[in-house]
Design a protein that fits this description.
The protein is an all-alpha fold. Among the domains are: 113 residues, Alpha Horseshoe (Serine Threonine Protein Phosphatase 5, Tetratricopeptide repeat); 77 residues, no CATH class. It is 70% helix and 2% strand. A two-stranded antiparallel ribbon has the order 1-2. A hairpin with a 5-residue loop joins strand 1 and strand 2. The radius of gyration is 36 Å and the shape is rod-shaped. It starts with a helix and ends in a 5-residue tail after the last strand.
Length: 437
């Protein structure tokens, strides 16, 4: 009796739902009453864990009032989820329930709009059901392909890695159906969505972890990315559309993975990428490439960009040392020294900076010798020695000692060891006079 009372109470609640917005109750009174009774009854059955009966009851609504309300399909999904957990399900019964589960999402899209949100949920549900079932990969691919036509904000964070997981499994199982090009294209689409989510204010740390996962899946496929693939499949497209940012990002990232960074397309793609999304690491990659290619004006530009984009003193130091090294190559010794000292102000005591200045002095003998005083001419080596000493570079200190003025030179010019002597030329520094041993 108690159950009947509860049931009647809930049925009355179902009848009151007719006043709520969004419900499409039948106009026919008899059908209207039957529909309200079925709607309330399956709710009771759900609350009492009678999911098979609830499934039978809610199917009546599907057959007779398919556009009643979105909640009947949302509840249907919950009911089917419970039935799929039952033990000893036959394969045919399990398959039928899985089909019914995905069908509930189709009906929501058919009758109640909000396609992006529902498709997002359907794709993830289908992935969980079938990601180990190769016969379903084509269907899953179509779901995700359609989902990724929507904006990044319509794609849930939990639908990033599954798409790449599917691409990886599909390629391994059926490479004739999903090619390497397809896998790379999917990786690129997911990366673009992640980038857009970050721009929109998403959780950067969490999204970066998702990026790391999809990158790991791609790398797990071994030689799927090769220099030949980049050159044959991507570079021609890039040459015809040099402003294509997504293509530039692909070429740049794939070149890193395939170790094709010595190719000209790596730099050209990187520059397009940098214009849209400047970063310290990207500036460094471009600066170093141009430096070793002997294009010092270009390398200087990107080392300066590194300084602007540096996140800490260590990065700023590296940027300044890059600038100093470039000034050396350009023959601007005085400017190179100035920048090296600026680097030392950021990272006091850094041996790299002292070594650079020491090298400048050591290599300035021919430029600075006046031929009037052997002691003054060889003072550049005394200056270099002091810089190498600060760097802790004993090998170069010893090399400098071999070039110090001899005791005879010092005596002949009436000078004294330990006294101060000014190094002329561009160096213009005072050093302690020492003799060659």
């Amino acid at each position: 009796m108690q159950k009947i009372i509860v049931l009647l109470a809930l049925v009355s609640i179902g009848f009151s739902a007719s006043s709520q917005a969004g419900w499409n109750w039948p106009e026919d009174e008899t059908m209207n009453a039957a529909t309200k009774e079925k709607q309330a009854y399956y709710k009771v059955l759900m609350q009492t864990d009678k999911y098979q009966e609830a499934f039978t009851t809610i199917n009546w609504l599907y057959q007779n009032t398919p556009n009643l309300h979105e909640s009947i399909y949302q509840d249907g999904s919950k009911i089917i989820d419970e039935l799929l957990e039952l033990p000893d399900l036959s394969d045919s019964r399990k398959a039928a329930l899985e089909d019914s589960l995905l069908w509930t999402y189709d009906m929501r899209m058919k009758y109640f709009n909000d396609k992006a949100s529902v498709l997002d949920r359907k794709a993830y549900t289908a992935f969980k059901l079938y990601y180990r079932n190769a016969s379903k990969y084509a269907m899953l691919r179509e779901l995700y392909k359609e989902l990724y036509t929507f904006s990044a904000s319509d794609i849930s964070d939990f639908n990033l890695t599954p798409y790449m997981t599917l691409a990886t499994y599909y390629y391994k199982q059926k490479p004739a159906e999903l090619s390497a090009t397809d896998v790379l294209d999917i990786h690129g689409k997911i990366t673009s969505v992640i980038d857009e989510k970050i721009i929109q204010g998403g959780n950067k740390e969490k999204l970066q972890k998702e990026q790391d996962k999809i990158d790991a899946f791609l790398n797990s496929l071994g030689d799927i990315i090769s220099c030949e693939f980049i050159e044959e499949q991507l570079v021609p497209k890039f040459k015809s559309s040099p402003e294509d940012l997504n293509l530039a990002k692909k070429i740049f990232s794939y070149s890193l993975s395939a170790k094709c960074t010595d190719q000209p397309y790596f730099i050209s793609a990187g520059e397009v990428f940098f214009q849209s999304a400047p970063s310290y690491s990207l500036a460094k990659a471009l600066a170093d490439k141009y430096y070793f290619a002997g294009k010092y004006d270009k390398s200087m530009y990107y080392y300066q960009q590194m300084e602007d984009l540096a996140l800490d003193n260590e990065q700023k130091f590296d940027a300044l040392m890059g600038q100093a090294s470039t000034e050396v190559k350009l023959g601007n010794k005085k400017k190179a020294r100035s920048v090296a000292y600026e680097a030392l102000s950021v990272k006091p005591g850094a041996s790299a900076a002292f070594n650079l200045i020491g090298n400048l002095y050591f290599l300035s003998f021919e430029e600075c010798k006046a031929g009037e005083s052997k002691v003054k001419d060889r003072a550049v080596y005394l200056a270099a020695y002091e810089m190498y000493q600060k760097a802790g570079n004993t090998e170069q200190m010893n090399a400098c000692k071999e070039q110090f003025p001899s005791i005879e030179d010092i005596f002949n010019e009436s000078r004294e060891e330990g006294s101060k002597i000014t190094v002329d030329c561009w160096i213009n520094e005072s050093v302690t006079l020492q003799r060659r041993q």
